[in-house]
C-alpha cells in the first residue's frame, strides 16, 4: 500500500487514490455505534483489541490487525504527503475467483447457497 502511495506522490496526474481496505480495519473498536457516531478517517479498529478477541479465529484476528495497521499507515502517509485519499471498507467483496482454490470469502457464500 505504501509503495503504491509513494508512486502516486511522484505522479502529478494522480488526483485521488481510492484504497479498498476492509471492514476489519474499522469494526473492532470496543466503542458503541450510536446514531450520532460518525465513522471517518480517524476511526480504526483497535489492533490490541483484535489480538484479544477470542471469538475470532487465529487468521481472522491477524487479518484485522494487519488491515488496521495498513490503513492507519496509508492515512498517515497520504496526510503527510498531501495525497487526496479515500478508503472503502467493504464487509464482503464477491466476484469471480482469480485463484484455483476456494478462499474464505467465497466459502462463506457457498455455504449460504448450499444451506450448510
Write up this protein:
The mean pLDDT is 85. It is built from 4 helices and 2 strands, in the order αβααβα. 41% of the residues lie in helices and 7% in strands. It has one domain (2-114). The longest helix has 23 residues, at 58-80. The protein is mainly alpha-helical.
Helix content: 40-55%
Topology as H/E string?
Answer: HEHHEH
First-to-last CA distance: 36 Å
Give the integer mean of the pLDDT values.
Answer: 85
How many domains? The number is 1
The shape, in one word, is: globular
**Strand tally, please?**
2
Alpha-beta classification: mainly alpha
Instruction: Write down the oligomeric state.
Output: single chain
* Radius of gyration based on Cα positions: 16 Å
Strand composition percent = 5-15%
Amino acid at each position: 500500500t505504501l509503495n503504491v502511495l509513494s508512486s502516486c506522490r511522484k505522479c502529478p496526474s494522480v488526483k485521488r487514490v481510492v484504497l479498498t481496505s476492509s471492514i476489519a480495519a474499522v469494526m473492532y473498536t470496543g466503542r458503541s455505534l450510536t446514531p450520532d457516531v460518525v465513522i471517518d478517517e480517524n476511526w480504526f479498529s483497535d489492533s490490541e483489541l483484535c489480538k484479544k478477541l477470542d471469538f475470532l479465529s487465529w487468521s481472522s484476528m491477524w487479518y484485522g490487525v494487519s488491515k488496521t495497521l495498513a490503513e492507519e499507515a496509508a492515512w498517515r502517509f497520504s496526510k503527510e504527503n498531501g495525497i487526496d485519499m479515500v478508503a472503502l471498507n467493504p464487509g464482503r467483496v464477491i466476484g469471480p475467483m482469480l485463484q484455483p482454490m476456494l478462499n474464505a470469502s467465497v466459502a462463506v457464500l457457498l455455504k449460504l447457497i448450499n444451506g450448510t
